[in-house]
Protein 1
Amino acid sequence: MRAAIFEGVGKPLSIQTVADPTPAPDQVILTVENAGICGSDLHMSEGEHTPAGLILGHEFAGTIAAVGSAVTGWKAGDRVTALPLNACNSCDACDQGLPALCSENLFTGCYLNAQGAYAQYVAARGSMLQRLPDGVSFEEGAMVEPLAVGHHIVGMAEMPRGASVLVLGGGPIGAAVALFARHAGARDVIVSEMSESRRARAMDVGATAVIDPRKEDVLEAFRKATGKARPSVVFECVGLPGMMRQAVDFAAVRGRVVIAGVVFQEDTLAPIAALGKEVTIRFSQAYTESDFAAVIDALARREVDTQPLHTATVSLDELPEAFEALRKPTTQCKVLIKP
């Protein structure tokens, strides 16, 4: 098969011909119809520990091409997406139906023994498959994974209907959070984002107002937009040091803060600020099978629209250049690959 290969930091992805994958007993092989470029793929390509020879890509949809001997209920030709998880199936997290939190889990597209979907074929666990209804396109199927991240983040807030919400950050995940916060019944969904194009996209997916934090006081702008002094729920979707503290400062008395932005270095928080308001702080990582199922159902019912998020589709040959372009400020949101 043809695949985009990571050869090292500072080098563009290389289109090569490599061996087709074969299914382990618990796996299927998918013909990749569409795959998505994720910001985490870009971060991995800049990491010194990312192995040369890796095929990136954990957002994908396609048709089943081959079925492992232990997989039941699936056949060649079935239209599917899959959770890109390869968990141990025997730990506390797995027993709770939380394979993404398994300490032994291998995310597809992050390890040489769990190669990703920047290729014509990709392997997936049979137990992680999710069927795509006829009305859900492969493009939408490839976007189920990032949408499921947003769905999970909103679910972690246990948000009451009619809530007034502040989303910090309007990138792909912040936009997905805005979309599903509205879908879950939030009255006000205010997105704070520096990029003009991202603010416009947030409005397209359901935000009720947007804030440019470089030009406006965020809380004052929130008050003007909602009539509320402070948000009852704050979603932190930026992932920079200091944002967690800012989210707590913005939250209302007994407000809820969900941290979804990824910060790899140490960060600081003034506990008294959270204690004084009895703020609840939760962290959100990845998703569950039920998040995938809920997103697919919402797509099938036409309750959510991915079009504002899907900004470009490129071929495998165009991928290296498109991938490098995403390292710089851009108006792109979700770029899909059609291998």
Protein 2
Amino acid sequence: MNKINQIAWDDTILPFQLDRSDIRGRVVRLDGVLDHVLSRHDYPPVVSALVAEVALLTALIGPTIKLRWKLSLQVRGNGAVRTIAADYFAPETDDAPARIRAWASFDPERLDGRTPFEQIGEGYFAILIDQGSGSTPYQGITPLAGGSLAACAQAYFAQSEQLPSRFQLSSGLSHVAGEGPHWRAGGVMLQTLPAQPMMPAEGGTGEGGLIAAADILQGAESEDWNRANILLDTVETLELIGPTVGPTDLLLRLFHEEAPRVFEAQRVEFGCSCTADRVRNTLSIYSAKDIAHMTTEAGIVTADCQFCGAHYEFDPRSLGFEATIDAEGQPLDSSDKAAE
């Protein structure tokens, strides 16, 4: 169903298809969501840029999967930026928004003047899919390659899924008259499903022998893919980030000859799944001796959510598999412990 009404494009995911070449894709704009994510931490600009890109990639990739619960994207390296992680939570109902959260860990003393991607060093790019209770989580990993997080995502889909993909990402601080500076990000994803994908016998043509789109596509499919990518190469930063160019206008500017068709847009907002009960469950595997090592001089156990900054405090007697009281401070008897 084509989307013909004008909507507020900030914090939305717009699916589309290029009918001429049978290429699907998404346009994502993050505004308030991204500002919410970054305002929870005092990141240097270079780290904020990486978090913005990972959040953007997560928003682009999450809806491509028939997801019941959560998709996680993780980037880990041996450089100054050690970890960047983001989660995409699927909408709980048809009219509900998707939710995103993201964070990074880094060594401020090791940050230097190199590009944001170079601050990560050597490491890996991973996607984890958790469909909830009763299912086995899926994890796919590829090495960091290509000189950007967008290139890493492209290598992941080519290598792990044999699915040619292209990501064009942009983010930055927006300065609007009468408003304080705030982060915005925008991106486009293209994907195509080959009718008969080629499978290279001995590695691919990508960095380090990774499979690339050119190793998978052939004939007319390859021509269609290359043409769409050449058109996407013409996009400008301000067109991606907005706010003056809406996603539908952007698609017409870039792909008008490819007959773009858009579908229902998905709203996205900041969301975190952390709760006191989840923290308790995480600590339930520890003994009373282990819990004692976690207890502060004030006689409490504390935990902070890396994503949203929520702070939790617990009575150590209520934690672990040897807990003697429940969350409300009531004594536990032996039958209560057996039930747990």
Protein 3
Amino acid sequence: MFCGLKLGFIKVDWLTLATALLAKSGLLPAENINRDIIDVVLQLRLPRILLAACVGMGLTLSGIVMQAVVKNPLADPYILGVSSGASLGATSAIFLGLGSFFGAQAIGVCAFVGAFAVSLLVTFIADFSSSKAANNNLLLSGMAVSAVCSSISSLIAYFGSNKEGMEAITYWLMGNVANAKIENVLLLLGIIVVLFRYFLTQIRILNLMLVGHDAAMTLGVDLHYYIKKYLLLNGLLVGFIVFNAGAIGFVGLIVPHIIRLLFGANHKKLLPVAVLFGGCMAVVMDILSRTIIFGIDIPLGVIFALLGAPCFIYLLLKQNYRPGVN
């Protein structure tokens, strides 16, 4: 994170960075420090670095939970149509003007509402599923809801015929942390901390989800109740992430895989290590997005897809990993 504060279009040496941080904390007088440097470090870079870390930690946590819920290591935080719901909300804000009274945050607010609404809908559908068919029904209902939301989004964009709106929604769907606001980031960080502490108390349930409903029932645990709760919490978490940074893929898929290959599938180790690694990885990717091409800020979602996916494939080949085999 300190490297992220230092590196960027405007060069800041380590001494200036340390002086700016000490001045902001009140330990040094700020009269002899360039105010522009302080603004760049503390107003621009610090919020986006914190947001990148939150995105990495939050999506990794969500990915681990969703992979346990559907018993599929290829699941990601958006598997149940959450991203399509967020996209529909963002499209409605841009082309229909919904949520315009929220001002500059209208797109994010509508995206959050769309993501959480889809989670509620999928949870409602899952509530009528039998325990044996719950996983299949979850996946199928998620795919169906995702298809409907994507179709409505495309329809709105088609009839909107707005070039600026198309550019805005395309840029939002790429996912970026450039417009981070510190108050929103701190709220997201608080939500992640609370949910992380909660899921640390759910290690046994997450492990039971891997062995199936029948085995859990013999131990007196009804997984159906926990699945509904986890889906709602996932919708809340992902909704706040897309509110702040748009739709960023691959994080919740590849980070749990990497840690699972190295530390095993037991959530007692997987959960804390993966969440920490996900936050660090997202910060590194954000630094690369600002420095890999001088003067160009590549969206975080794009840099994850370009660099994260090939590294993940290499790791799978190196470990001689076979899908479906623990």
